[in-house]
Design brief:
It is found in: Cytoplasm, Cytoskeleton, Microtubule organizing center. Keywords: Cytoplasm, Cytoskeleton, Microtubule. InterPro entries: GCP, GCP_C, GCP_C_sf, GCP_N. The structure is a single chain. This protein folds into four domains: 150 residues, no CATH class; 140 residues, no CATH class; 94 residues, no CATH class; 196 residues, no CATH class. It has a two-stranded antiparallel ribbon. It has a two-stranded antiparallel sheet with strand order 3-4. The protein is an all-alpha fold. It is elongated and about 145 Å long. The relative contact order is 0.05.
Length: 745
């Protein structure tokens, strides 16, 4: 009886202590060695035993439940530690994916295997306790049940909760980060012995986590064959095969067709993401994002573009000769380095000493017996800072970020005003006609290249990256509309569509690795949006100036031609008086456009550029730099009112009215033109008054635009003209008799 009890305590039943499930074999129910954990306690004392008192029977039944728990925990550990899923390299990926998609196939888990190793440690302590009891009972004559109960009493608070834990893991198929989360929750209990055991299990689970973190944050390699890490590849083949039924070979073929630069960009922007289902709750989202960034940064540093490797090798050779050049306007002088082979560029971007430093941080965490959240977060922040610093060195210093930022300011923000002034003058006659959908872009290339020849020096190494684009605008233009005099036929209700066809002019900027990490397509699209707005504004300002020059030239020509003809002079004088109010309107238009242009170029762009430059000088963190640049672009868009639909629509209407006014005032012979000019004048006054009213509203006064917006309003309303007009005290057009009043001014 003693030996059968001791054997039952380590999971082996016999004639006196039986497993009730053994009696179900005749019904075809058989528990195989690899079956899941049983959820029914089946160890019982045989019912036909009559020589045991009921009190002793109850005590034995209570003791042998420990044997049942032991057997089920040992079964779970054996199944989880089974390495039969490790296959040879000749197994095809398709066969492996078909097995993974089979619901009957047990999915392997490195985290469960780690937990199983911890369970084996705990069960070995239990087995040692049973062995000690056996030795004690054989050597001394002492009460059997009392000795067994006294020796195993502490396991009554350990094995049942562990059994419930394992049962939950099996029932809910918990693995990976979810398993760590479950263990972390179970650690918070009031039983010291149980807490120590679960902490030990959690320690084993964290060993796997730290190994995955080391692979990701030291080498940039994602070691996660079974989808248990909270950093996940977007292109995981197992997920694609099981969930979407796609072919691994198709994915591999697509990736193989991608260039190294494309692969690097895809990795950075889309290749990896945080899988929230596997993120333990005690790891904050901010920390997980830092881990994701650090791994992606290490991948970039360890896998530079071949083109960049070649350029950097040439750069190293030049620096050895002693030629130091300041890149762009950044003020940074490249550090002289010994020329290295192309294969060593990756190691130079991330020195081995830095990689060892990261590895040692993770090793310290791994060797700690308990998980300390603060220490973990501090180490992750330190690793992220190391990765961000070296990525900053790569992008800002080696790739000349500031030079490219200056180029984008020159061309997308119109800082090179002479170039765009020349371009608009060269293309002015072309833009008088609606663009032809098939050749609009080619037509623009001629004035674009002429402006470049006249204003861009050969030393400007960034202009070659700029290209002009004319997106599809969906306008059908008749082939007969080619001569300039016919432009007046489009000054009707449909003129707005044809005239605004040129508003689609856009620039593109060619960016090499690794600057694509900084200048994303989203960033470049914001630059293009601002460029189109500024170009239209400059075009409007130029047309207002050209119209004034044209009208004055015509007026002086008429005066010189008829200066000796008193009759003609008497006729031309009323004509001059008739159009003088329109010259006042043109001046009002030019005043508004000039002040808006000055406000955007000086108060907005230049001030924000200076703020960005100070941030670049002070920051040595790549992510901080990306944030500062986003703030820079957001400030440009918001302070230029592009994010306020009502204001941007009014400004678009004002610029359209200004262009219509210019083209009409140059063709001022007919009375129909006079009425059209009056209509344009009336609309302009309405729009300008609405603009002033909105800009001085309380909603905008409290926003971040307020300091610079007040300057703009002060310039516009320096003599209270706009304020008086907005209040209705002075109206230029309505009522119509107000026109002669302006003639006397």
């Amino acid at each position: 009886m003693l030996h059968e009890l001791l054997l039952a305590l380590v999971g082996y039943t016999g004639d006196l202590i039986i497993d009730e499930r053994e009696h179900h074999k005749s019904l075809g129910i058989h528990l195989s060695p690899d079956a899941t954990v049983s959820d029914q306690r089946s160890f019982k004392l045989a019912s036909d035993i009559s020589f045991i008192d009921p009190s002793e029977r109850d005590l034995i039944d209570r003791l042998i439940t420990l044997g049942f728990y032991y057997r089920e925990l040992d079964r779970f550990a054996t199944i989880s530690r089974n390495l039969s899923w490790v296959r040879s390299a000749d197994v095809s990926p398709l066969d492996r994916s078909s097995e993974l998609s089979n619901p009957k196939t047990e999915k392997p888990s490195v985290y469960r295997r780690a937990i199983a190793n911890g369970l084996v440690e705990i069960l070995s302590v239990y087995r040692s306790a049973v062995l000690q009891i056996e030795q004690k009972l054989l050597s001394e004559t002492i009460p059997i049940l009392a000795t067994v109960t006294q020796g195993l009493n502490k396991f009554f608070v350990i094995l049942p909760p562990l059994y419930e834990l394992v049962l939950e893991i099996e029932r809910d198929d918990i693995r990976g980060g979810q398993l760590l989360n479950l263990l972390h929750k179970r650690c918070h209990c009031g039983v010291p012995e149980l807490q120590a055991c679960i902490q030990r299990l959690l320690w084993h689970g964290h060993q796997v986590l730290y190994n995955q973190l080391a692979s990701w944050m030291v080498y940039g390699i994602l070691q996660d064959q079974h989808g248990e890490f909270f950093i996940r590849s977007t292109f995981r083949q197992e997920d694609q095969d099981v969930e979407y039924g796609s072919s691994i070979s198709d994915t591999s073929e697509k990736l193989s067709r991608m260039s190294t630069d494309d692969t690097s960009l895809t990795d950075w922007h889309l290749g990896f993401h945080i899988f929230l289902d596997m993120l333990p709750e005690y790891i904050h989202m901010r920390v997980a994002e830092s881990i994701l960034f650090a791994g992606k940064a290490i991948r970039v540093l360890r896998n530079p573009s071949p083109a960049f490797q070649f350029q950097d090798a040439v750069y190293n050779q030049q620096t050895k000769k002693g030629s130091q050049k300041i890149h762009g306007s950044s003020g940074h002088v490249p550090i002289q380095k010994e020329p290295l082979g192309v294969k060593m560029i990756g190691e130079e971007l991330l020195p081995q000493a830095e990689a060892d430093k990261i590895e040692n941080m993770l090793l310290d965490l791994k060797e700690s017996l308990e998980f300390h959240k603060r220490s973990f977060e501090c180490s992750v922040d330190s690793i992220r800072a190391v990765a961000a610093s070296h990525l900053w060195q790569l992008v800002v210093v080696r790739a000349d970020l500031n030079g490219h930022l200056k180029a984008l300011k020159d061309y997308f923000l119109l800082a090179k005003g002479d170039f765009f002034q020349c371009f608009l003058e060269e293309s002015r006659q072309l833009m008088r006609l609606p663009p032809r959908q098939s050749t609009a872009e080619a037509d623009l290339m001629v004035p674009f290249q002429l402006a470049a020849i006249k204003t861009i020096s050969e030393e400007d190494k960034y202009f070659s990256r700029v290209s002009l684009r004319m997106p599809s605008f969906g306008i059908t233009v008749k082939s007969s509309q080619v001569d300039l005099p016919k432009t007046k036929t489009y000054i009707d209700g449909s003129s707005e569509t044809s005239l605004d066809g040129w508003d689609g002019i856009a620039l593109e900027y060619s960016v090499d690795w690794p600057l694509q990490l900084f200048f994303t397509q989203e960033v470049l699209s914001k630059y293009r949006r601002i460029f189109q707005y500024l170009l239209r504004l400059k075009r409007t300002q130029m047309e207002l100036e050209k119209s004034w020059a044209s009208v004055m030239h015509q007026d002086h020509t008429d005066f010189a031609k008829h200066r000796n003809d008193r009759m003609n002079c008497s006729i031309s004088q009323p004509r001059r008086q008739r159009f003088r109010p329109m010259w006042h309107v043109r001046e009002h238009m030019a005043f508004l456009i000039r002040n808006l242009q000055f406000y955007i170029q000086v108060d907005v762009i230049e001030s924000q550029w200076n703020v960005l430059q100070s941030h670049i000088q002070d920051s040595h963190d790549f992510t901080e730099l990306v944030g500062f640049h986003q703030e820079y672009l957001s400030a440009l868009i918001s302070q230029s009112f592009l994010d306020i639909g009502s204001v941007s629509r009014i400004l678009d209407s004002i610029m359209t009215l200004c262009l219509q006014f210019c083209w009409n005032i140059e063709n001022q012979e007919s009375s129909q033109n006079t009425s059209e000019l009056e209509r344009i004048t009336e609309e302009f006054n309405k729009k300008s008054n609405s603009l002033y009213t909105i800009l001085r509203s309380s909603r905008l006064a409290g926003s971040q635009r307020a300091p610079f917006l007040r300057r703009f309003l002060l310039r516009m309303n320096f003599n209270s003209f706009f304020e008086a007009t907005a209040r209705g005290v002075l109206n230029v057009v309505r009522p119509r008799p107000s026109l002669p009043v302006l003639n006397q001014q």
